[in-house]
Specification:
Number of strands: 2
Strand content: under 5%
Distance between the termini: 8 Å
Number of helices: 11
Shape: globular
Low-confidence stretches: 1-17, 307-328
Strand order of the largest sheet: 1-2
Helix content: over 70%
Radius of gyration: 24 Å
Structural class: mainly alpha
Length: 328
């Protein structure tokens, strides 16, 4: 009887053995890094107005895109065709990651997330190609929004395949865990919404008021989230890293946004400066989304609310062990 009680008790703290695969994690990291590079190149294409420099798709001036002569990649053709090549590399990397997850990952949810990443990157490529063929500005906006969503998925895969995540440490019981998690998730959603408004503004010049309002809301929620994290004191270590990045990126993003606003609506800046400001604004926005997402996922990973159900479970186990020891 005593041995049975010990087994019941140990089941509360026992964790599944780690299924960490260094190869899978390295591919996931490479995929996230390549996607960030793709966002940078895509931002350059939009900032320089080079999106239609190559008029056909999926070919490039009738060539197989992988065989297009380097000597002909000049001017805006260089930026647009480079964008297509980097996008192809990201697609291949995503497929490789999904296959590796399917073969090596025991968790079905993570395998499904890898498959979803493949579907998303294929959709992203198709929308980008149709933008060239159909000349629809709406498709350009959707393309930009899907790119950021895919980057978030790539960052999530890199985090979920890491060794630290696979170790599954016990969750800390805190009374306001649900509030922290809701605030972190809402901040991530607001950042993505701000990215959507930014894409509309970049491609149409409209919804500036919504974009400015969104910037204020994101800044407010980042500050509220920071206050909530610091209340955890010694238990906030898993969140301090992404929070520090989120705060630093927020200040950089506000400065870049101000510069981009001045260059677009107030005065004419040198072409190189304007392109750098707009492109950096897109990339830093993506990094803010990534930092907020990592913070959100870690808040769910490391914290849970110490509710009545958990307390009753521990009390029941304690009573069972006590009665078994007395009977023994």
């Amino acid at each position: 009887m005593k041995a049975e009680g010990e087994n019941s008790d140990s089941s509360l703290i026992r964790h599944q053995p780690s299924s960490f695969s260094p190869a899978v994690h390295r591919v996931a990291l490479a995929n996230a890094a390549a996607t960030l590079l793709l966002l940078f190149v895509g931002g350059l294409v939009t900032s320089k107005g080079a999106g239609l420099a190559v008029p056909d798709w999926p070919t490039t001036f009738g060539y197989n895109p992988f065989l297009y002569p380097w000597s002909l990649m000049v001017g805006n053709i260089f930026y647009e065709h480079s964008h297509r090549l980097v996008a192809s590399a990201v697609g291949l990397c995503t497929i490789a990651l999904a296959v590796m997850l399917w073969l090596c990952e025991p968790q079905a949810r993570l395998r499904r997330l890898g498959a979803a990443a493949v579907a998303l990157v294929v959709a992203q490529g198709v929308v980008g190609g149709l933008r060239v063929v159909l000349l629809e500005q709406t498709l350009a906006i959707i393309h930009a929004c899907l790119a950021q969503a895919f980057f978030a998925v790539a960052v999530g895969l890199a985090l979920l395949t890491s060794d630290d995540w696979k170790k599954e440490p016990p969750k800390a019981q805190i009374p306001d865990a649900a509030r922290l998690q809701r605030l972190a998730a809402l901040t991530t959603i607001l950042i993505y919404g701000q990215i959507v408004f930014g894409a509309i503004l970049r491609h149409t010049g409209e919804l500036l008021d919504f974009h400015l309002l969104g910037a204020g809301l994101v800044a407010l929620h980042v500050m509220l989230l920071g206050g909530r994290v610091f209340k955890l004191q010694s238990r906030n270590r898993p969140l301090l890293g992404p929070l520090a990045w989120l705060g630093a990126l927020l200040f950089a993003q506000l400065a870049l946004g101000l510069g981009a606003y001045i260059g677009k609506f107030v005065m004419t800046l040198p072409a190189g400066v304007a392109v750098s400001l707009r492109t950096s604004h897109v990339v830093v926005g993506a990094l803010m989304l990534a930092a907020s997402l990592v913070l959100t996922l870690r808040s769910f990973k490391h914290f849970s609310r110490g509710g009545l159900t958990e307390e009753r479970g521990f009390v029941a186990v304690g009573r069972a062990r006590g009665s078994e020891e007395i009977s023994a």
